[in-house]
From TrEMBL:
Binding site for substrate: S255, Q277, H280, H346, D379, E433, H438
Family as reported in the entry's similarity comment: Belongs to the histidinol dehydrogenase family.
Biological processes, Gene Ontology terms: L-histidine biosynthetic process
Co-factor requirement: Zn(2+)
Originating species: Halomonas huangheensis
Spans annotated as Disordered: 1-49
UniProt name for this protein: Histidinol dehydrogenase
Catalytic residues (UniProt): E345, H346
Residues that coordinate or bind NAD(+): Y151, Q209, N232
Entry-linked Gene3D superfamilies: 1.20.5.1300, Nitrogenase molybdenum iron protein domain
Keyword vocabulary terms for this entry: Metal-binding, NAD, Oxidoreductase, Zinc
One GO CC term, this protein: cytosol
Length: 451
């Protein structure tokens, strides 16, 4: 339903922005604050200190006690009493065999699309070797990681796309060994998804204890070099605490979607897309940024209408009430400025000149240009990755991709001519800094050339 089909609409109260919303909601001084047709009631980034202390205890226990601690926490948090954590080959094969035929076809369709796009991305990563001065050669190589741990969330529903997004790009990148961990009570189809995506080993371990097991290693689970994949607040906090000895992809907050729309926006379509994302979690952040007041008010009415018949309204409804926002801005420039400030995980463009607007945006996790490009397609099967930066991290990073699993390491080599180019300034600079050892290391090679 487009906005011109909305009739008998009760005018909603316009809400002014509130300082309590946090810096992700209010624009900085350099950005004109919008008028909120609907303002969020809460800050989706708020977290409890109890999570931090509980996770710290879990990590410490797993580090010290290994499998025994993992087993204890699996029983406590997942009500799973497992003697053996690893999924056997026969169990993997059986899980695939038990997949509904159409589900398997759809899963393989998604795997192929994600693989195809990841291969194209990998092909864009060039290795270089250049001579920047006579005799001074430098370059870099793209080296796949040795072992990666992929956390695969179980969630309220079997998220069949989750293993595809983390495991398939790792396989394309050439990672030596891919470890997958998923909650013990995850749907069997999730095991099938891990298997079809290319996981080398699969473990029935969830939560912070899974992150600890992969970060430190246990009697059953090998230590990995990097941990990727989204999860709940406990998983996220565990990744934050283990970072350093192991790498992580990013710290993921609740899911987000924002839509940029002008007078051409379709209220029914926008509301549908907002609620599709809102059903992920009661803390999902959803929003509309628009230059058209009539559209803003129509979307507000349309969301409420659709919630009446949405089977997941018990999740999407609270998300919309607590974290949903509709921001009215003066013009396209204000829309761009506020959008870049929000830096939404998923950003859809529903405007008259969608591609032109897309070229002016710089802060987002993934961009969906035009009404035909729904976030749902990327969430499931179109090919771009759905593991994306949240909580304004789109200002400084992109999402999970094949490059996440590769380290780009530099190298150099010098001829005698190259030594003559760089040794003198290196020795002089070292001397001025009072680093005699550095000066000698630079000078000795030059002296030997002279000898």
């Amino acid at each position: 339903m487009s906005i011109d089909q909305v009739t008998d609409v009760q005018e909603p109260d316009v809400q002014e922005p509130k300082a309590a919303q946090g810096d992700r909601t209010l624009a900085p001084n350099s950005v004109q604050a919008p008028t909120f047709i609907k303002a969020p009631k809460s800050d989706a980034g708020a977290d409890s200190g109890q999570v931090e202390s509980l996770v710290a205890d879990i990590l410490s226990r797993v580090r010290e006690q290994g499998d025994a601690a993992v087993r204890e926490f699996s029983q406590k948090f997942d009500n799973a009493n497992l003697e053996v954590f690893e999924v056997t080959d026969s169990e993997r094969e059986q899980a695939v065999a038990n997949l509904d035929p159409q589900t398997r076809k759809d899963t393989e369709f998604a795997i192929n699309n994600v693989r195809t796009f990841a291969k194209a991305q990998l092909g864009s990563l060039s290795e270089i070797d250049v001579e920047i001065l006579p005799g001074v050669h430098m370059g870099h190589r793209n080296i796949p990681l040795e072992r990666v741990g992929c956390y695969v969330p179980g969630g309220r529903y079997p998220l069949l796309s989750a293993p595809i997004m983390t495991i398939v790009p790792a396989k394309v990148a050439g990672v030596g060994e891919i470890i997958a961990c998923l909650p013990p009570n995850a749907h069997e189809a999730m095991i099938a998804g891990c298997h079809l995506s290319g996981a080398d080993r699969i473990f029935r371990i969830g939560g912070a204890q899974a992150i600890a097991a992969m970060a430190f290693g246990t009697q059953s689970v090998p230590r990995v070099d990097k941990i990727v994949g989204p999860g709940n607040a406990f998983v996220n906090e565990a990744k934050r605490q283990v970072f350093g000895p192991v790498g992580i992809d990013q710290l993921a907050g609740p899911s987000e979607i924002f839509v940029l729309a002008d007078h051409t926006g379709d209220a029914e379509l926008i509301a549908t897309d907002l609620l599709a994302q809102a059903e992920h979690d009661v803390r999902t952040r959803v929003g509309l940024i628009t230059t058209d007041e009539a559209l803003a008010k129509a979307v507000l009415v349309e969301v409420d209408r659709q919630l009446e018949s949405l089977s997941t309204a018990h999740t999407a409804g609270p998300a919309w009430q607590d974290y949903g926002e509709i921001a009215l801005v003066a013009d396209e420039a204000a829309m761009i400025a506020y959008s870049d400030h929000v830096a939404a995980e998923h950003l859809q463009i529903h405007t008259e000149n969608d591609k032109a607007l897309a070229a002016k945006l710089s802060c987002y996790g993934s961009l969906f240009i035009g009404e035909a490009a729904s976030v749902v397609y990327s969430d499931k099967c179109s090919g771009t990755n759905h593991t994306l930066p949240t909580m304004a991290a789109g200002r400084y990073t992109g999402g999970l991709w094949v490059g996440t699993y590769i380290k780009t390491a530099t190298h150099q080599w010098l001829t005698d001519e190259g030594i003559q180019q760089v040794a003198p300034p290196a020795a002089r600079q070292s001397a001025s800094e009072g680093l005699e050892g550095h000066r000698r290391a630079a000078q000795i090679r030059l002296d030997r050339l002279g000898a």
